[in-house]
Amino acid sequence: MTTEPAATGPRCRGCGAAGARLRGTKHSAFLGRDFEYWDCAACGMMFVEPFAGYQVYDDAYYQGRGADPYVDYETEYRDYRSTDRIEELRDLWRVASGFVGRSLEPGPVEWLDFGCGAGGLLQFLSAQREIRSGDRSWPLRLSGHDIGTYADRLRRDGFEILSLDALHSQPDGRYDVISLIEVIEHIEYPDEVFRLVARLLKPGGLLLLTTGNVASPAFRVQGLGYGYCMPEVHVSYFTPRALGVAYARHGLVPVCFRYDGTVRFKVIKTLRTPGRQRLARLALRFPPVVWMIDFLFGTSRMPCATKPRAARVART
Ligand SMILES: [Zn+2]
After folding, report:
1. Could you give the domains of the chain?
2. Does the bond joining 288 to the residue before it have cis omega, within 30 degrees of 0?
3. 28-66: pLDDT as tens digits
4. Tally: H helices and E strands in the chain
5. Rounded to the nearest whole angstrom, what is the distance from the C-alpha of residue 195 to the centroid of ligand 1?
6. Residue 63 C-alpha to ligand 1 middle, in angstroms?
7. What average pLDDT does the chain have?
């Protein structure tokens, strides 16, 4: 690991501040080159230089033969219920439907899944049809956004999958819920996405966001050797503070949830052998095991966000 004078660093790709500091380099066997990891003191984000480009998201990537061996879009697309991701989907549903039931008046809920991938969450939500609490109901109206072949397949299945251009032409405050599940770490200029989703979110609505936590004990111990640090695809890294700073820039307010199935899924998906996965599923039935892993990964410390309702009052 080397350290260079602050002034020589590139501008932060999150907040634009000068003087990022070099944390270290990591070799990509997949692309056959080194990547630099830079820390921004101003906003707390860590970013990778150079950006490998979005062309790494090809069909081989979706089949787990690309930079990330944990990807399996085809199984999720064909039968999301059979994958371990069902744990995460149920957990996200619990979190979001609880928020909606507490915070929104009954009525249609417009939900955008930004970075919908193979469509596991959209298919899960489509099967739920509505959020219910007592005799009140919130029918779901779903949209997604992504690039690549699965976006086209989901379109053919009848989902509204919007291009980035189409999203930019949507009216302010269209969506009650916007999910960004393990997406923001893939984005070269994450602030552009935060700006867009903050505009599209309705006052009182929920930005349901998950991403790795590089302030977690797991990262602090392993540093750039942490398996999550895949410089070809994970290019923007956040801490709870860095997310808070990004939210505040766009008038969003952090809100924290205690995750459960999301934590289980994160563990199980990184275990490659069926034996280890079985053992993990067994151990993860015990809440203290989940709490311990949640502490190590810092999952529940990463805030989601809401848009204050005062913004609506000020605008009208
Ligand atoms: Zn920054």
Report:
1. 6-315 (3.40.50.150)
2. no
3. 988 999 999 999 999 999 999 999 999 888 888 888 888
4. 13, 12
5. 15
6. 33
7. 93
